[in-house]
Specification:
elongated; 6 helices; nine-stranded antiparallel beta sheet; alpha+beta; eight-stranded antiparallel beta sheet; 367 residues
Length: 367
């Protein structure tokens, strides 16, 4: 194998794939990046067996072939080279890297030992604007269950229907749902549970200036394609809970407020919340148009902050975990929010004011 390319292009490709190669004692080949030159194309690949990533590097192929080398070693070395043309040649199981002033040999392993990355048929494409989708997954992924004893909620649920992608995450204490339009709607509906690590990796490799992100689904695999980068992952088996059942249809109190004011009030009250409970109390005074955010701790003291609000309906009181409440407020992506309640025993619904593309359900702390 022999090829040449600019340091800039190889460095970018290695940054995209080497992150997936992790320290694996039982299977050292997983620490490597696979470099393959076939049909004039330079491709870099890495896998951790749960997901795989491929990216194309611009350059000139002089001789076809394959080799694997330690991903971190190669990435760190290429990163230190000047931005100029470099030549890479495989000699048995070694990779020779040449620049104008440097010649380096990196010991590798045969490509025959590298695990096969699954191929997902690129037949039916579901395309979304890359920047919008990256932002959308960021608005929900924090709510995924960390405990994998319930696999069906240990990933992010994606449902594509009627030209719209709905992205959901829950840990049974709170739930986040974000809706985004497809860039190229089609008649094929799909739903799948994607592992959290895959979603996090996807967010890392999608650049803000990227155009469209395309998704391809098979029975047990999904492939995301963006700007020449392919991310392939398994799909979590199981049925996602019918979360729509827990979303209240009628409310007794609806309060609209400034997100900045609410966040500051909750953070202030949180300083005096009970350890391990993280409780903050919200009292809604419809007549005065005020929400009182408070917390008390026998060891530390107490705090109450009043914020202005446009409240319709009844007086109401509820108690939330301040961490969960702040997560929802931080991801409304708007200056004005709305919190809707039945009472202190039922979940509250947090949404952007006058928008319906984001929904955050939070279970109350029952006193």
């Amino acid at each position: 194998m022999k090829f040449s390319c600019l340091q800039e292009h190889l460095n970018k490709g290695l940054n995209q794939v080497s992150h997936l190669a992790s320290k694996n004692v039982s299977l050292p080949i997983l620490n490597n990046v696979l470099i393959s030159c076939e049909k004039g194309i330079i491709k870099l690949s890495a896998t951790n067996l749960e997901m795989g990533i491929n990216t194309i590097v611009r350059g000139k192929v002089d001789e076809a072939g394959k080799i694997t080398v330690p991903a971190k070693t190669l990435a760190d070395h290429i990163n230190l080279l000047p931005d100029e043309k470099i030549e890479l040649t495989s000699q048995e199981n070694n990779l020779l890297v040449k620049s104008k002033s440097t010649q380096t040999t990196i010991r590798g392993q045969s490509a025959d030992e590298f695990p096969v990355i699954p191929v997902v048929e690129q037949k039916i494409s579901h395309a979304v604007k890359a920047k919008d989708f990256k932002k959308s997954i960021g608005q929900v992924v924090y709510a995924v269950a960390q405990d994998e004893s319930r696999p069906e909620i240990s990933g992010v649920y994606i449902k594509i229907k009627s030209g719209r992608a709905t992205i959901v995450a829950t840990d049974s204490y709170r739930l986040a749902e974000k809706k985004t339009q497809l860039a190229k709607p089609n008649e094929h509906d799909v739903e799948a549970i994607i592992p959290t690590r895959t979603i996090q990796e996807l967010a890392r490799i999608v650049y803000d200036d990227a155009n469209n992100l395309e998704m391809y689904f098979s029975d047990n695999q999904v492939m995301f394609v963006c700007e020449g980068v392919e991310l392939i992952s398994r799909i979590i088996e199981g049925q996602y809970p019918d979360y729509r059942q827990i979303i209240p249809q009628d409310y007794k109190t609806v309060a609209k407020f400034s997100c900045d004011e609410m966040i500051k009030a909750v953070k202030s009250a949180a300083l005096f919340s009970k350890t391990g409970i993280n409780d903050v109390n919200l009292k809604f005074n419809a007549k005065a148009g005020r929400i009182m955010v408070s917390s008390a701790n026998t060891q530390l003291g107490e705090s109450t902050t009043e914020i202005r609000a446009e409240i319709t309906g009844e007086e109401n009181v509820t108690v939330f975990n301040h961490r969960y409440l702040l997560d929802g407020l931080a991801n409304l992506d708007t200056s004005q929010g709305a919190l809707s309640l039945i009472d202190g025993s039922n979940p509250g619904t947090l949404t952007p004011k006058d928008l319906d593309d984001f929904l955050y359900i939070i279970m109350p702390i029952k006193q």
